[in-house]
Amino acid sequence: MGVNFGQRTTVPGLAGKFFNGTWRSTISTGNIGTIPLTTANDSSNVTGTTGMPSTSHNSGVNLWPSIDFGNGVGGNYGFICIGYFFPPATGTYTFYTASDDGSGVWIGDNALEGATRTTGNAVLNNAMGYGQGVQERSGSTTLTKNVAYPIRIVMEEEVGGDALEFNWEGPGYSKQQDLTAFYRAPVNPDGSLTGDFFNRL
Question: What is the dihedral of CA 112, 142, 131, 82, to 10 degrees?
């Protein structure tokens, strides 16, 4: 199934947002916060900005060119990042998260709003539903060149240390954080982030 982009456009990176709350019991569904991601500040628990692209990335919906934040930015919050991955070659891709606490990644139709997500159908399940110190885990899947794959990245933090780092690698591309070359976030006609996925054909 393809993506109906129509006249709508995208920008390099992914759309991401923090949400207040305790998400440990629901992280396996990937439903941390709501989509569309709105510009409202639902993240007053996230007061730090260590590792974030700007000092305003702890509130509202923002464009993320890479994901590597933590070291005490807050407690009792969740994070969700969405958009599309356009694989530059056909082959096996590996996705990594290093997180405190749990995190997960879904790619393809399972990333979309109407899908039923579980720890079992996640491409990457990094201790979803459990507390942990920073731990890196990975998951792999085979993807086709230049197909627009929806992607959903989530993490949750209760108390104590907190962190999330996202990396990827694939045929001809070493492990890296860069989300500007092959990841895209949908935007509205006025250039603002939609915070949502485009319709499927």
Answer: -30
Structural domains of the chain in order of their starting residue, each with its CATH number: 9-187 (2.60.120.1560)
Query: Is residue 111 pLDDT above 50, yes or no?
Result: yes
d(CA 3, CA 164): 28
b vs e for 17-56, b when ≥16 Cβ sit within 10 Å of the residue's Cβ?
bbbbbebbebbbbbbbbebbbeeeebbebbeeeebbbeee
Q: How many CB atoms lie within 10 A of CB 102?
A: 25
- 0.90 exceeded by pTM: yes
- pLDDT value at 201 more than 80: no
- Percentage of residues of the chain with pLDDT beyond 70: 95
DSSP code, position 192:
-
The CA distance from 53 to 136, in Å, is: 21
CA–CA dist 200, 10 (Å, integer): 15
Return d(Cα 125, Cα 117) in angstroms, integer: 11
